């Protein structure tokens, strides 16, 4: 099951009731619901409220928390009503030669941020015949979904980093400045959010004095991340999130392609 939080500490879709409850427990007028599919859950999250800020009985989520400390939240049921998301306005016009503009209503949202899943893979990682690919998944049938062969050194870690790079490149081409990026690579997340600053201060040396192997990759990722509001989210690989599974599938397709 997928737990959708439209109004809570962190709107989004979660795999367990405990994760969902942490976002809505004692949160005023929380809105959340359980769905059998990830697509339905995201549609619920990005559904717009009515102009007066209310949502009406038919679109109310299964549970509300009004800050009552003594009220125990129950897990939402599947039959609580929900309506599909409303279409959003189109993105601005693209610069000459840039990728075609994609309508905003084709994306999934967490609050005001667009959601994307990335993944990298490498068969025979660390061996002579290694083949690496990157996958970026924006949603079912989305025109920006891509699976391509990783250029250069073929490793799993490089594939994970460059999958994130590709997502940021695509986001910037669509004038998206707020992004929630899901990846199953804690190496990528820790590198861009924590380790890079220390490496730079240390002349791109590790704490043991060795050269940072993925320096060029993280330099590119950091450059692309500049000027963007990015939430780096970890999702366990092969854990049931369709977004992660689809990004993995695209990465594997990319790894089968010939190298440029």
Give the count of helical stretches: 6
Q: In angstroms, what separates the terminal alpha carbons?
A: 41 Å
Q: Summarize model confidence as the mean pLDDT.
A: 80
Structural class: alpha+beta
Strand content: 15-25%
User: What is the molecular shape?
Assistant: globular
Radius of gyration: 20 Å
N to C succession of SSEs:
EEHEHEEEEHEHHEH
Give helix % range: 25-40%
Low-confidence region ranges? 48-72, 78-98
Strand element count:
9
Give the biggest sheet: 6 strands, mixed
Question: How would you sum up this structure, described in words?
Answer:
This protein is α+β, with helices and mostly antiparallel strands and 260 residues long. Helix content is 29%, strand content 20%. Strands 4, 5, 6, 7, 8 and 9 form a 6-stranded mixed sheet that branches. Strands 2-1-3 form a 3-stranded antiparallel sheet, sandwiched between helices. Strand 4 and strand 5 (113-123) form a beta hairpin. Helix 3 (156-173) packs parallel to helix 5 (215-225) and helix 4 (186-201) packs across helix 5 (215-225). The longest helix is centred in the middle third of the chain and has 18 residues, at 156-173. The termini are far apart.
Quick rundown:
The chain is α+β, with helices and mostly antiparallel strands.
Question: How does the SSE layout of this entry go?
Answer:
Elements: E1 2-7, E2 12-14, H1 17-24, E3 31-35, H2 38-45, E4 108-110, E5 113-123, E6 131-137, E7 146-149, H3 156-173, E8 178-183, H4 186-201, H5 215-225, E9 229-234, H6 242-255
Parallel strand pairs: 5-8, 8-9
Antiparallel strand pairs: 1-2, 1-3, 4-5, 5-6, 6-7
Helix pairs in contact: 3-5, 4-5
């Amino acid at each position: 099951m997928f737990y959708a939080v439209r109004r809570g500490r962190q709107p989004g879709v979660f795999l367990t009731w405990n994760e969902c409850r942490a976002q809505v427990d004692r949160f005023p007028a929380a809105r959340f619901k359980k769905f059998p599919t990830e697509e339905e859950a995201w549609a619920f999250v990005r559904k717009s409220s009515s102009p007066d800020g209310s949502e009406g009985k038919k679109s109310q989520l299964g549970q509300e928390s009004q800050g009552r400390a003594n009220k125990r939240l129950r897990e939402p049921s599947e039959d609580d009503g929900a309506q599909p998301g409303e279409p959003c306005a189109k993105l601005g016009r693209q610069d000459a030669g840039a990728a075609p503009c994609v309508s905003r209503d084709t994306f999934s949202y967490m609050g005001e941020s667009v959601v994307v899943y990335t993944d990298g893979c490498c068969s025979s990682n660390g061996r002579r015949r290694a083949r690496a690919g990157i996958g970026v998944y924006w949603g079912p049938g989305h025109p920006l979904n891509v699976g391509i062969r990783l250029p250069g050194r073929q490793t799993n870690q490089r594939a994970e980093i460059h999958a994130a790079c590709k997502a940021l490149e695509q986001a910037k081409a669509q004038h998206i400045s707020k992004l929630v990026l899901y990846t199953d690579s804690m190496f990528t997340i820790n590198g861009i959010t924590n380790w890079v600053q220390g490496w730079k201060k240390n002349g791109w040396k590790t704490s043991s004095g060795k050269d940072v192997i993925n320096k060029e990759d993280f330099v590119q990722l950091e450059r692309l991340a500049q000027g963007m509001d990015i939430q780096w989210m970890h999702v366990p690989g092969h854990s049931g999130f369709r977004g992660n599974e689809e990004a993995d599938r695209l990465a594997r397709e990319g790894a089968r392609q010939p190298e440029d």
